[in-house]
Each structure stands twice: as structure tokens, then as C-alpha cells.
Amino acid sequence: MPIVKRLTAVALAGLLAACNTTSATAPPPPAPAADLPTTEGTAAHAMVAAANPMAVEAGLKVLREGGSAVDAAVAVQAVLGLVEPQSSGLGGGAFMTYYDARTKTVTAYDGRETAPKAATPELFLGADGKPMNRIEAILSGRSTGVPGAVAMLAMAQADHGRLPWNRLFAEAERLADQGFVVPRRMGEAANGRSAQARTADAAAYFTKPDGTRIKPGDTFRNPAYAETVRKIAAEGPKALLEGSIAEAIVAKVREGDKPGAMTLADMRAYRPRKGAALCRPFRVYVVCTPNAPSGGPAVLEGLGLLERTDIAAHGPDTVQGWYLFSQASRLMYADRDRYMGDPAFVDVPVEGLLDPAYLDARAKLINPDQAGPAPPPGNPRGAGVRAPDATKEVAGTTHFAVVDAEGNAVSMTTTVESIFGSGRMVGGFFLNNQLTDFSFAPANTDGAPAANAVAGGKRPRSSMAPAVVLDRQGRFVAAVGSPGGPAILAYNLKALTATLDWKLPMQDALALPNLIASGTFYAAEVDKFAPGVRDGLAAKGVQLRSGAGAEGSGLHGIERLPDGSLRGGADPRREGVALGY
Hints:
By secondary structure, this protein is α+β, with helices and mostly antiparallel strands. The chain is built from 19 helices and 21 strands.
């Protein structure tokens, strides 16, 4: 990463304004020749980093044909929904952070699912008034929200696309029609122990004619998916939100003894959101994410807390570096769990949480020598009274990054929520169970409302926080993000700390051990930390424990090097690659 000098407050204000306004710059360079070689890890012109090589190649094909970063994102998502259905798909939602190299603006697109209009705060309460069993809720029709990923991509592509929409699904259609080799993770998930992999729909989909389940390495076809993407290519998101596919979705969520309340009117009414990204300075950089209900504000708070420590003076092999990371993480999670929700329905104190004075005060709670008890949430300006949160998120998500030949960048996190979503299928794809991202308990025992309580038309809180990093002149530095349920916040914070403070190459940053610190629990990839680091952290009161979520990252990112070339990274915990030309 290039190191640039700290600018004045006036210059910073101008750059932050650039996240919302247009400025003139030099014209973009010409597109490179299509026959340039593809290389792994570094590239001269354009790059895609994603969790599956077939999706990466689909994105690169679009880029070589003159498509934009958003055009490539459409192709990548269409293929991921086919070859990584345990993580994302046409029936899910997404957040995208987009950087425009010409104007140096950063735009956030919100394709988060919405609850049906008829949904109430008691959606996940049983007849006894107590929260439902989580697996029971996931498998029920109540768990599915109106899908938003395709509509969000269509909005972004209308703004920033170069190729016709109907050309962007060709690779997904070809693979679904002609067949593809089942990836390891898809095959393992199809044979896994999750309840969603055992539903009638999943069993019918994953069972071969001989009665056995698909396995990694098999050739697999999905003609129903091919037909769905053909319709979406021809008709746009209307093909999904209206007509026969929408009717099938509504019928599917109304099956069973705990049906959902989704209607065709809910489907037709869905609208993605867009607006200026939420950008904040971090040392000599500016980091941009989507706003609430995404996890972006929490990641920016975590960075703001770390900026007030000397973590940059300690490397990734030191006790103190990871100790400071863990303590800032605990403060970040305490605030996020109490205050985050859909700002269209509740007051979310984003400005208060990111206020420099508030960050100063919270950072002072970090004891440099010894971890204390679980920190309570703070009292940022505009906070109001909120109940302790009862949301339980799981890891069924993916992330990818794209940089095109003109320097435009996409950072996109996309999901069906749990593994294979709700386990229900229509049109060759799984439906999401995103509504279980709401708090099952709508209020505290004293009646204080939960910020993330269910409401009709509301979007559930998310940890997804696709980030774009700029320098103080508004030039692209990096794009990064991860899946992982609530651990996304820690995964993203780790990657940003490692690249921006510890100056690691992107691949090395993503491969670092994961540590998720919330309350008194420190989940970690324990065996990946050097014994000296583990023992040193324990002496400071940070006892690392292997735990759920600690190994669930799928970080993917791209950075621009000082010579203008690109360097990407793919999380070794999944099966992705970073390729370019």
C-alpha cells in the first residue's frame, strides 16, 4: 500500500464530500486487449476475487468484452447462485459499495430483503409467547423475506453498466444447461448435517438418478436455473418479483403449518435503495461502507477505536496487536448489538457512534494491560432507549470484489442467510431465511423495544459490510469484505487492520488467524496463533477458544499497488481465487 502524507482538515472535508458529489478528472485509460494473459494474484488492468473460480471466470469474461465492474458483478452473482447455493443466490439479498473512478464518488446499494407488510413483532413467537426454536423458524415460511439482490444489481447496472443486461447471464445459463463440476464446498454442504440440506426440496435437487447424493467432482445440471436466468436476462428483476416465479415464491413460503405472510403485492412493492456511502477517515485513508442496516457503521466504529490506539506499532505476530484488536472489537459489538436496525423504522445513532468525541471516550475504556469484564453499550448522541438484542445470525453468505479496466470497483456481500437459506426452492434456486436476522424477542422484559424487532416492510439488521478504501485524494486503494454472520464485523476489521496498519499484502492479510471478541467470549482459530501469542493473550485475560464462527470467513479483496497494478486475495478457508488480466 502506498503511504501518503496526512492532509489538512480542509482537504479531508473535500474528500469526504467527494463521496457524495461529482468532480472532474482525467479520462479513463483505454480498455486493454482481450487476449492479454490471465494471472493469479496480480494483474495490470482488471481483476475479480470471489469464492469460486467459475464465478471469477464469468466476471472476467464480461470485463474482457468491455463490461464494467457492475456488469461483471451481475455475472459473478448469477454463477455463484448456481455453484455456491449454500451461500447466496437469486432468492437472497446483498449490499454493494461502488467506487466510480471518474468522479471519485462512492455509492452504496442496499438490496436487503424486506419483511411482508403483514409481518408483526411477534412473527417468531410461539403460541406460548416465547421465541420459536431457531431451526423450526428457519425452515418455516415465516423466515423468507422479499428477495432484493437481483433488483439491486439491476439498479446498479442501470447506473454504471456498459453491456446490455441480457448479455450478463450467458455463463450462468451455459453452466446450468450443460453442467458444471460440483465444487467441494457445495458437495460437502449438500451432504452435510444442516436441516436445510435435508428438506424435501433439497433432497430432490441433490439426489442423483441412482438414489445417491451429489458429491464433489460430479457433473451436475440445473435446467430450472437456466430457465430462470433466461427470464431474468430478458425481463430484468420483474421476472423475479412479478409473474410466474413470484407466484411460485409466494406459494412456497405459504406451505407448511407455519406459513409466511408474503403476498404478490409485497413482491411487486420491493425497491432497492441507493445513496452516498458512509465514509470516515482512518489514518491517511478514507474507508467507505453501506449505512445501516448493514454492518458498515460498526466496522467504521471499530476502525475509529483502533485509530486511537498504537496497534499500528504492533504487528500481526505480537500479543499486544491482537490484544488491542480484541478489546476494540468488544466495544464495537456492544454498541452494534444494542443500536443497529433499519433506519427507515428506528432511529439509529450512526452519527453519534462515529462522533470523534464519542470514539475518544470509548477508546479510553481499553485497558492497555488487562481485559476487564464485558463492556456495556455506550450512550452515543441520539441513542434513545433500546432493549438488549436477541438476534442470532448464522454464516451462509459470500463476498466478492471487482475492479475494471477504468478503475471502477465493486465490493459486494451477498447472502441467502443460512446454509441453503430456508431449504425451500423454486425455479432452481433456494429461498432466503433472512427474516430470522430479526430479533426473535421484540422487546425487553421492561417493555423497551429492540432496534431490530420485526415490522412489516422492514429490513433486518445485517453484519454485511462491503468496504472500499480510498486515499485522501479520493483514489482507489482497496476493496474487501467477508461472509460469516455476526463475525463479518471482526473478519472485515481484521482485514482492514492488516492491510492498512500492518501493511500486509492482501492475500497475507486475509489468511491471518480469525479472532472474534464479543462480551466475555473470544472465539478464535486457536491453533493458527503462535503459542507465545496465545499464552500472552491469556495472561492479559483474553482466553482464546475454538468456537462457532471462528473459522467461517470468506474474505476476498483487491488492492491497487503503487505502480497502478492490482493485487488480489482469496480466503484460503474457502475455494476462491483472485484472477485478472
